[in-house]
Amino acid sequence: MGSCLSGDRNNHAIPYSEIASTSRGDGVVTRSNSNRKITKKSSSPSIDSPREMSLHRVPGRMFLNGSTDHASLFTRQGKKGINQDAMIVWENFGSKADTIFCGVFDGHGPFGHMVAKKVRDSLPLKLSAQWELGCQVSPPVLVNKDSGTSHCDPGRLGSSNDIHVMLKESFLKAFKVMDKELKLHPYIDCYTSGTTSVALIKQGRDLIIGNVGDSRAVLGTRDQSNSLIAVQLTVDLKPNLPREAERIRLCKGRIFALQNEPETFRVWLPDSDSPGLAMARAFGDFCLKDFGLIAVPDVSCHHLNEKDEFVVLATDGVWDVLSNEEVVAIVASSPRSSAARIVVDTASRAWRSKYPTAKVDDCAVVCLYLDSSESATVTTQEQQELTKDMET
User: Fold this and answer.
1) 168: domain CATH number?
2) Which of 7, 168, 216, 311 has the fewest Cβ atoms within 10 Å of its own Cβ atom?
3) 97 pLDDT exceeds 90?
4) Which residue stretches does the UniProt record annotate as biased composition, category Polar residues (predicted)?
């Protein structure tokens, strides 16, 4: 519950256009040596504006509340200030047939909303570029097995394994380039702001997931008795995980939980009780990058079968109050056109019930269906409800 203790996002709330993404120049950062000064340039769009505006007109690319035959996506602002969650579904990704990119991003810190939306817009492009480069390499170059970031099946042979290896390397390189771009970005201050990312590429029956932070991917599938079950596909990369804790402490970072939230371990600077980041990996947050925080994704590969029905990606605003099994049951029993919204509705009610004195967190959900046999046509009433909750 809560990602970062450095700064109240309400004190830094910046009017934000979903259409212009991070390209508006609101809350522009001017750097002079080590000083950071926030200036207001709402009338002067940034240099990214033309490219990002054109992105929002790409067919098959969705980042607002809605649905298609293949997916349902929905986000809602919590009670902590501006919505810092972002999401995307991109069909025919990379101009490849039967290929979909999905992702959810949970920003934190004073400019987390800008970081999350920047990653939402830029990471898919970097992944596509790296994939294209990988396709020109034959045979694919194997990634170091000691990296500790891959769960691809080394025993799988043939073209499926080639896709896994190629996409794994694409994820690792794209995430590295994305974090470097954020560090050098002239308009977004990522020193104490960042974002999680759980993103996947589905091509045919192959699924590759790259995860940074504590957003989560869960598979809805059938067991041998044909009962619906939930299978968690990613690990919540918290600071108290042994492998994460060891790296952070070797880099002189500190890990401890506050007395009023003993279940939430956070990362702190060696000589200062800040920023208190509740995850071990993230884009941005460069104040901690020398002290164990990394943006290297945990990459997992899966070959889907006929029993696999859907994948749910969601930010921790959902998983903090709903179990994997509850979310899978909700999606399975909901119309495809509104499944993501119903998950968010249920999570919002659960927050008020389980944590009545806490502020409801932002929530973002993407439900990716692994077949398109059921129509996801949206009724007029459903579309009106979706539009009402849509970010502006």
Assistant:
1) 3.60.40.10
2) 7
3) no
4) 19-47
The total number of structural domains in the chain stands at 1
Question: Mean of the pLDDT values across residues 354-364?
Answer: 94
Which range of residues forms the domain containing residue 126?
26-241+284-389
Identify whether 308 is part of a domain: yes
Share of the chain above pLDDT 90, in %: 68
Q: How do residues 103-137 score in pLDDT, each as one tens digit? A: 999 999 999 999 999 999 999 999 999 998 877 66
**Residue percentage of the chain with pLDDT more than 70:** 75
258: in domain: no
Cα→Cα distances 162→16, 130, 165, 200, 304, Å: 41, 15, 5, 17, 16
82 in a structural domain: yes
Say how far apart CA 254 and CA 119 lie, in whole Å: 27
